[in-house]
Amino acid sequence: MQKTRTDLLNPTLAKMLTTFHLDKEYVSGQGSYLIDKEGNRYLDFIAQYGAVPFGYNPEVIWEALERVKTNGIPSLVQPSLPVEALALANKLAQITPGDLCYCTFCQSGAEAVETAIKLARSATGKLTIVSTERSFHGKTLGALSATGREVYQTPFGAPVQGFIRIPYNDSSALADVLEKNSDIAAFIVEPVQGEGGIIPAQPGYLAEAQELCRQHGVVFIVDEIQTGLGRTGKMFACDHEGIEPDVLLLAKALGGGLIPLGVCISSPRIYNDDFGSLHSSTFANNNLSCAVGSAVIDELLKDDQKLIKEVAAKGDYLLNRALQLGQNYPDIIKEVRGQGLMVGIEFYDLDDCGSFDMAYMCERGGFTALLAGFLLNVYRIRLVPFLNNPMTVRLEPTLTITLEEIDQVMDALETVCEILFRRDYALLYRFLIGDNSTPENIADHRSSSRSIIASRLEPGEPTNKFAFIIHYPGPEDVIANNPSFVRFSREELHQLLDWQSQTEEAGMVCHMPAIRS
């Protein structure tokens, strides 16, 4: 039998997964756990960025799909009125803030953003969309143009005309741009920036933004694709401050972890005939996917929103454990941020860390990929690295996660912090050469580490460019620049050098804009 190629979906991503031993083949999933083809169970603490709200293969979602099958409900009957889509629209109209009621269903969060852009422009007759720096709204061209990161945009000719970006959590910047531009159709914002590194809106920011938009006749769009449907401890993140947007966007959790489903929900103030007569999507108003959406809403509303209340309590517990970790390791953890079951732990850049290899790993953006590989292979805990914030770890488990499982993850992260604090970096690298044993004795290498002088420039100090090209002639030189690697045998050091030569390109070990004697 011909071997199945693992690079046909995304060869670039496949290389990264292979490099850091993240290339597991999961063949089944139940609750918060994934099982690989060898039968190993992994605690999933990412829940597909919130798209798996009730864990894998939740019975309540399969029951909804079975009901559609048993009753022979047709899935695609546009332009007629699909019964399941109409039922879901009515449920959403009842639970969303303010007078939101008109539902335009779609297949993804990015499509929901595209829908909102078209809706705002048709409602106002204006072109410009304002978004925020470090935001993420999707990767189709319009949504990508609203996304606040050039790294995603540049290769694709984005942003296209009609998009302005301002700082997040800065209502004065919003006021200024609204005053100076008469062609603004909408302001789109996330209550918590997800891909930006889990950055919550500051208290009062969304309310001020809403008021400014109302004053200037600008459509206020709140992107709750990741935060909506219980993730922050409320049905919607808007509910924390009583926000009533003109347009609300949902996706991810709305599909129950099984079906792609998104929606753009709008106020009668915004919905208009131009949009209604000209916008359509072949797979929108799908009875099959909308039946799942209704099951998701029913599950969240059940027992007086019992699950959402539990999320609020578990979110507080997770955040407090992360904050305590930050207090215990103030030189390792830069900041802890979050709301509900959506927490980010940002680590300091490892500049003067006593290890050229760790400094290089950070420089190449591989720090959290290394941590993710370590946690997956050693502790069987699944996290994924941020592409948007390479020094931040995202904690975003299923809504059904238990306190014991939270403790399991936080205990493992505490071990990681202790390793970083004591500079016993070899323990983080061992899995790369096949040693997945749990660290038992963390040695202290702080006194034996070579000092890499942090060469920050003073304000106004002139800069010059120069470089030294270096490589490791032999295994002994690896130890000289990474004292903790004394743990490795000579054979293991050769294996590690082979891993580096096969997976890493030439790059910068450390930036030194000035050499100080």
Outline the secondary-structure elements.
Elements: H1 11-19, E1 26-30, E2 33-36, E3 41-44, H2 47-50, H3 59-71, H4 83-95, E4 102-106, H5 109-124, E5 128-132, H6 141-146, H7 150-153, E6 163-166, H8 171-180, E7 184-189, E8 192-193, E9 199-200, H9 205-216, E10 219-223, E11 247-250, E12 262-266, H10 273-278, H11 287-328, E13 333-338, E14 343-347, H12 356-363, H13 367-379, E15 381-382, E16 392-395, H14 403-422, H15 426-429, H16 475-481, H17 490-503
Parallel strand pairs: 3-15, 5-6, 5-7, 7-10, 10-11
Antiparallel strand pairs: 1-2, 2-3, 4-12, 8-9, 11-12, 13-14, 14-16
Helix pairs in contact: 3-11, 4-11, 8-9, 11-14
Write up this protein:
With 517 residues, this protein is α/β, with parallel strands linked by helices. The protein folds into 2 domains: 240 residues, Aspartate Aminotransferase, domain 1, CATH 3.90.1150.10; 246 residues, Type I PLP-dependent aspartate aminotransferase-like (Major domain) (Aspartate Aminotransferase, domain 2), CATH 3.40.640. A 7-stranded mixed β-sheet has the order 4-12-11-10-7-5-6, with helices on both faces. Strands 1-2-3-15 form a 4-stranded mixed β-sheet. Strands 13-14-16 form a 3-stranded antiparallel β-sheet, with helices on one face. β1 and β2 form a beta hairpin. The longest helix is centred in the middle third of the chain and has 42 residues. The N and C termini lie far apart (63 Å).
